[in-house]
Amino acid sequence: MSLECYSTAGVALGERAAYWSAVISDTYFPLHLSYRDETRFDGRVERRMLGPVSLSRLRTEAAQYERFTDQIRTGEAGHYLVTIPCSTPVQFHQLGRTVTCGMGGFLLERGDEPYRFSYDARNDLFVMKVSREALSARVYQPDRFCASVFDGRDGLGGLFAETVRRAHAMAADLVAGDILGRQLIELLALSLDRQADCSESVPSVTRAAHLLRAQKAIRQHLSDPDLSPETVAAACGISKRYLHELFNETGTTVAQYIRVCRLHAARDMLQMPGQQRLSTIAYHFGFCDQAQFSRQFRELFGQSPRAYRDALHGGGKPN
After folding, report:
1. 13 or 2, which is more confident?
2. Interatomic CA distance for residues 163 and 16, integer angstroms
């Protein structure tokens, strides 16, 4: 996807603060900004959309960004930001916790909760924006990781941070960008889960492990028409009531998670070259018929399966 660039370089000094506030609001969400010297503030942001995530790079003078309660609209879709500072440490406060994240680390911020974020000198930052729904589908209770610093140098965290940097610089077409964006979410989820393995209490880790096992079992049996909470619970050796509790804590249900996974898998198949009929894809992923598949696909992705495939490959494919 193309790279969008915004800079204060061509903006009059007295108008830069207002201009930058508008850029930040459009890139992330409304924030209150403070500057060490707003008349001399200089900033540049480069943004690239990769399917379900937005990647941006900010290079600015010292600034403070605050998210206030009155800036959070009731019912708005929640998002998380993942920030990777590259030249100057950042200070972050949210959910009663205050941390400092330096170079080689990254931190998670919840966008629909108040917070304060700042750095005292010119900085270079990579920021990944991902929906609350997308991350919660891969990570048990992501909020527990907010205002925590993660290692972005080694292991899975290092792989995630390096992939963010490379992905931001990489031009990608619609299909490749979508796949890359979802892979970034997977890498982030693995990094957060590894942190949980190292630092969470035994009960929390056990519940998280059960949830991950259940999610994996679902993704491995999407083509099974009999896939249900009962079969998932049996495969994981847990009760159906406990399974429902695990998913309810993530803000969804077992049935909803199965449906969304099936639709994502069907969308992946639509991206592949070939002549698969829509009815064949629908039945392969456990939908009762093509009409049900098309209706639910439109509800989730905003367009029919046929329109989605035609936009990628052109018309003329079988129905």
Report:
1. 13
2. 32
Kindly tell me if the per-residue pLDDT of 14 is higher than 80: yes
Residues 6+ positions from 15 with CB-CB distance below 8 Å: none
Give pLDDT, residue 201: 46
- Quote the tokens at residue 153: 């140098």
Question: What strands lie across the sheet with 123-131, from one edge to the other?
Answer: 4-7, 43-50, 53-60, 123-131, 79-85, 105-110, 149-151
Same domain for 143 and 34: yes
Q: Both tokens of residue 311?
A: 């936009």
Same domain assignment for residues 22 and 10: yes
**189-221 residue pLDDT tens:** 999 887 765 554 444 566 777 888 899 999 999
Neighbours of 105 (CB within 10 A): 21
104 three-state secondary structure: coil
* Structural domain ending residue among the three candidates 200, 216, 236: 200
> What is the residue whose two structure tokens read 């190292």?
198
29 to 42, 99, 235: CA distances (angstroms): 20, 22, 41
